[in-house]
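Bumping my old thread because nobody answered last time. Still need a sequence for this structure:
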């Protein structure tokens, strides 16, 4: 286990707050859900597999406190919404349901992800990592943003990225990697995209003078979750088990792995910052590509086009256009 772990030491309660976490039925997302539920939040698990989501909810309800010394009985509330990021129709349906049933949304945690997937396209014709890890979250965020805006000051959008972004590049001429696919290349591109999206969204919000919503990207650490589950098929038999063994031996456990996400969601000091990348519960260095403002704008534009939106529109018009797509 990683001996130099930093924990989020905020004792803030989250009563009355609504938090959405994508991919919260396992790994980091599930531990983040458990922590925020314990703090009194209404936690929405946005998941593709209802059976796994129900099992996660049962587990969190049965064991809201992983640490026996922190018992309280004022936990929050848990709900499940169906979301499959590989389908824009599913993302829109999920957003529509959320907007119909949730009067307020304070925190959106874009956590779901896949890694080391063999080359495959989604129903929308995009490379699997690009859509699951970046484009689906890009769309969900823009659809939910007006509700965050109406939910009061102190709202946050958190994008779970990775230190592997240091190895990533955005292949603007071949964004779906049709000419030169590699699972590592696809994963690192999508994780770099998470940071570029964070920075550009912070800029767009500032330019549109929309206040009260901060945006964060983060590296959670290396953690033995199910993230490498596809590597056995992509690389060699047992690659997933090797990953789990080495991360278990040398790196963070899943509770430690959720700390930076929790920090970005609740910490008071982080509440004064936006557009930054965090690791071990503090702002951290990114690759030079992740800091390149031309890159983030170019990725923003290309993401809009892949969603059949006009990137040239000003941000507020863009939000109105996209909202109309799910209006009856
Ligand atoms: N573990 C690490 O060492 C590590 C390091 C750096 C960054 N990260 C990042 O941390 C995040 C969480 O990963 P994890 O390690 O907790 O892995 P995990 O246990 O595999 O969790 C991933 C979650 O994403 C969900 N998901 C995958 N595809 C989806 C889709 N199409 N629609 C909706 N949900 C989908 C999964 O749902 P199903 O159960 O239905 O598949 C699962 O709930 C990811 O963004 C990952 O890139 C992890």
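Sorry it took so long. Here it is:
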């Amino acid at each position: 286990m990683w001996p130099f772990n930093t924990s989020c030491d905020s004792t803030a309660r989250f009563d009355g707050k609504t938090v959405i976490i994508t991919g919260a039925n396992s790994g980091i997302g599930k531990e983040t859900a458990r922590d925020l539920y314990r703090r009194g939040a209404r936690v929405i698990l946005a998941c593709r597999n209802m059976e796994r989501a129900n099992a996660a909810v049962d587990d969190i309800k049965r064991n809201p406190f992983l640490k026996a010394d922190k018992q309280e009985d004022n936990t929050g509330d848990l709900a499940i919404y169906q979301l499959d990021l590989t389908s824009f129709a599913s993302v829109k349906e999920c957003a529509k349901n959320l907007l119909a049933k949730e009067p307020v949304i304070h925190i959106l945690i874009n956590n779901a992800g896949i890694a080391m997937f063999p080359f495959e396209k989604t129903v929308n014709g995009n490379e699997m990592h690009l859509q699951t890890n970046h484009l689906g979250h890009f769309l969900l965020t823009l659809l939910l943003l007006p509700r965050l805006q109406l939910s009061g000051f102190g709202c946050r959008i958190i994008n779970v990225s990775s230190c592997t972004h240091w190895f990533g590049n955005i292949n603007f001429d071949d964004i779906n990697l049709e000419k030169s696919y590699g699972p590592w290349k696809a994963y690192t591109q999508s994780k770099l995209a998470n940071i570029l999206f964070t920075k550009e969204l912070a800029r767009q919000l500032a330019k549109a003078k929309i206040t009260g919503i901060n945006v964060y990207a983060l590296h959670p650490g290396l953690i033995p979750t199910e993230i490498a589950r596809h590597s056995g098929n992509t690389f060699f038999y047992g690659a997933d088990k090797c990953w789990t063994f080495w991360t278990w031996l040398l790196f963070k456990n899943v509770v430690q792995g959720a700390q930076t996400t929790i920090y970005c969601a609740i910490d008071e000091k982080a509440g004064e910052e936006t557009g930054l990348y965090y690791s071990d519960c503090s702002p951290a260095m990114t690759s030079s590509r992740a800091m390149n403002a031309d890159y983030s704008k170019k990725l923003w534009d290309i993401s809009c086009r892949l969603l059949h939106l006009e990137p040239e529109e000003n941000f507020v018009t863009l939000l109105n256009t996209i909202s109309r797509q799910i209006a009856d």
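Residues 183-207 form the longest helix (25 residues). Let me know if any region looks off to you.
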